[in-house]
Records
---
Amino acid sequence: MSPLFVITGPSATGKTAVVSALVKLFPEAGHMITTTTRPMRQGEEHGKDYWFMERSEFERAAKADEFIEWVETYGNLYGSSKVRLEDLRAKHPFVFVLLDVRGAHTYFEKVSGMQVIFIKPGNINDLKKRLAERKSSTSPEELERRAKEIKREIELAHEFSTVVTNIDGQLDQTVSEVARIVRETLAKRG
């Protein structure tokens, strides 16, 4: 099976932007898209950003064991389809997966042939600022919960094999570092 590169980190660390850039840099790679019950934000597309699903349909799929992992985060359900991942691994030489920290832990336990890259913020205040900028699509209660979770997730960085710091305003440098790690890992696998 093709290798997986799991990109994880706290909310607002820029991991979505990193994965978007990686998909452009490596057009041969697959990109695992998460299923969610979260409402679609302005500019998002079904099947491109997330697979958006009604809560009842998601719960049915979870009960039928159709997800590798699933979790309720900030009042919404998120999960990774087993069938979609198998399909991506069969069609692509490697696959990028974007997950929250809990999802990355579950993948690590259940999926072989993967490397986890933890995106760590350069400054926790940068994350709080980014979360506040999402105000229009995120409730104040959710912002508060996310801000509390950030510190706990940052403390888990040492549990992952690779940590890359994303300094605010230096996304290109972060993407370059992650791309270097991907290339080196693929070269070692031959």
Note: The helical segments are 15-25, 55-63, 82-91, 101-110, 124-133, 140-154, 171-189.
---
Amino acid sequence: MNHILRFTHLVVKREQKEIIHGISGNFQSSAITVIMGPNGSGKSTFAHVLMGDPAFDATGKIFLDKQDMGVVFTEERSKKGLFLSFQTPVAIAGISVIDLLRSAYAERQVQMNGKKKVIYNPVFRKQTNTKGIDWTVFIKTIRKESEFLSIKPELLERSIHEGFSGGERKKIELLQAIVLKPKFAIFDEIDTGLDVDALNIVGKGLQRLVHEKSGVILITHNTRLMKYCKPDCVMVMNKGVIVACGGISIAKDIEEHGYAQYK
């Protein structure tokens, strides 16, 4: 099934300061959309507003397919198929990566298939009341996708992002998206700090999401990652407005000449 994430006349303020000025557009599933723009152009703010961050005062409309997201809180937006990877993922002590993935996977199965709610035992693989949820599939998926993303197995047993390198944090964020298969996955500068090998792996992971019919929204400053996953659309934001929208030629033009002509 194809999905559309649509926004119309979106105005965003924070502490009375207007950051985004009445933008409209849409994102398609099974496609990669890149959002580029100089620092302070409103890209990260836009991502947070799509997820319903209460720190921002937003007017206008956001629709996931035919459902108005304006009345849906962040947690519910996630359950309905939106995913946001933060620019700087935070460490969370005491909760392992595998526990996070297991909880999120169970909640996603409940939402997608009406499975019975799960009650967890803190010991891995000893869940109770898991009727209708195939944990064998989950375990196989985690092993397969972790290997695909070159994630060391021991990282899955450690607290979320605690002591992880920048590249390891970005891979773990991507792993979450691949396991959850959201309708739309938003990545805020997932390419920052990655070496060439990691960029290649992340690019393949993003392509896998598209193959699974997710819509991928990439916020970035440069074209490095686009060498490994070709975008279907490039949007340019500047001073809170979408000033251009087109193909990859826009990104190449920005790389060569900067944002001077996109004002």
Note: The first helix runs from residue 43 to 50.
---
Amino acid sequence: MGVQKMASVKPVVWSLIWLAIILLVLFVMVSNVLAQEPTPASSEVTDDQVNAIAKQLFCPVCENIPLDVCPTQACAQWRDLIREKLAAGWNERQIKNYFVEQYGARVLGAPPAKGINWLVYIVPPIAILGGIIVLYRALRSWKAPAGFSAAVSGQTGHVESTALPSDEYVRQLEEELRKRD
């Protein structure tokens, strides 16, 4: 009879041991997850603040992709670095300067206004202003000559003209029109 009691106790003990192991594993996993949450200092920095700076920087690895939308792991690490720098009290200019020192001026979304780069800021407005002036002059030259103005009277259909007397073609045209009436 003692053997039967022992046999029935073994499954209960094994069940308790397995339950303890499962609880221990779950506790370890939960504690790891809690350890990976952001620290209170970095939780004050929002994604919008990080992305405001990241969209002004380009990924040093990928070509022509802003840092805020780049899907690579490296860009995720650089966004985390921006978050850390903001939490440490760095401002936008300091963070940009840090990235320029590390990766060169090519990471900036807008080139710095020094050296030959200043042309990027000067040439487009000058080109637009020049285009407006050329268009204005072209439109003025397409107008009818100042000495020639034609007006059609509503009921008779006659064309009245104040053409210059030296313009032979206009004079012949007016004579033909008068003959038709």
Note: Residues 2-35 form the longest helix (34 residues).
---
Amino acid sequence: MHDNHNFLNIVTGTTSGSIGSLILGNANVTNKNDLPVFTIALKLETTDQIEFGFFDYSTSPFTSNQKGAYFKISEGKVYAVTSDGTNKTETEIGEVSTYNQYRIEFTSSDVRFYVGSLYDVDATHTTNITNDNLTIKVSAKTYGSTSQIVRIDGIALTRLRKK
């Protein structure tokens, strides 16, 4: 990223709890059996309350046990999350970088999460994986009175090759 060039911005207000979101499509657009892959490059101005990845279209951002497979950034740490709507699996990956690439891959048996290197898996989940169709969401939530700014440099939905 050079001179803050970016594809689009998500900016929340300065009122605590304000949410800004990007939702791709107006319904759930993919199924885990299609082996979807979500890839995104982000520049973060703050690293408090951000989530992005595959979600059930009908759920509101930042609610507990959202169906999906996604990254959660909270208090400077990045987490990999899978949830079937009732139970969730959450793995801390580590400190968040202000600029990074992230990838989520569904396979026939698990969900793989990548941060930075798109070749080295940072977390693999085999539990609490929803069978429902999902869409892509990117959301930020104001923490205290600090506006969240998420700069998206690139976003892609592809799929793994079936063997």
Note: The radius of gyration is 15 Å.
